[in-house]
Amino acid sequence: MDVESFEPPPELDLGRQLKVLIHGWNADRNHVSILPIRTAYLVQDAQNLLVADWSPVAVLLYPTARDLVLPVANRLGSILARFIKRVGIDPSQVHIIGHSLGAHIAGNVGRHMDGKLRRVTALDPAGPLFALDSKDAVGPDNAQFVDVIHTDGLTLGENVVRGNADFFPNSGTPPQPGCETLDVFTLHSCSHARSTGFFAESILLPYSFISCACSREEISRKDDICLPDVRETSLRECVPMGEALGPSARGTFFTRTSRVPPFGLGNHTMGGQASNRH
């Protein structure tokens, strides 16, 4: 679909949230890394969906593609701004979800829109050639609310706090459960793509990934104290990671996941009784 010439059919509900998906490096709009998210939104059928395709740049050598993050984002932002204005969608209805290099592009699209978008979700933002102070990295001011899910920190992803709320499932570093062998063969793409698998699952199972506020030190130690069914956590904020996350969440959060789908453990993160503290 060419969004520049798109005329909305009368049955299209423009009051719904608009979800915009942005794939990562070496991918396209049909790539296995983001297909589960697209499928989950289509199955749920509660939002409008656009899937960006920047594959002509994404297939270039990584350093080149990384250098083009800002121009690609500005181009996408310009198209999106014209599109929502023409069909009558308010920026506060728009939620952009990006993976890897696409997570930084998503942030810059939000920046292009003056931070007015409802939400930017960064799924394992790309780490290589990004520094803590990179001006074109995703950041907390890119939208009204920015959340980040880290799954391959220190390798293909970042171990850097970039959002209003940053989630570190299984401490956010590789190997993610179930990726131990696969990461060796795929050079970490299994752990890197877990972020999209977790987010896709959260669309249809919104309370699958109950995550609790925890310091970076506690997260790196994978402390049980971070889990929702430990008695001492009653004073900790516990929120659902993923689609159902509310915009008031702030800080760093920890959760554990299963090795195979469904990945979410709900509140049964230690095999104990479920907690009602969310």
Automatic annotation (TrEMBL):
GO terms for cellular component: extracellular space. Residues 15-242 form the Lipase domain. Keywords: Secreted. Its main location: secreted. It comes from the Eukaryota. The keyword Translocase does not apply. It is found in: Secreted. It holds the Pfam family Lipase. The keyword Oxidoreductase does not apply. GO terms for biological process: lipid catabolic process. GO terms for molecular function: lipase activity; serine hydrolase activity. Belongs to the AB hydrolase superfamily. Lipase family. This is Lipase domain-containing protein. It comes from Anopheles christyi. The lineage of its organism: Eukaryota, Metazoa, Ecdysozoa, Arthropoda, Hexapoda.
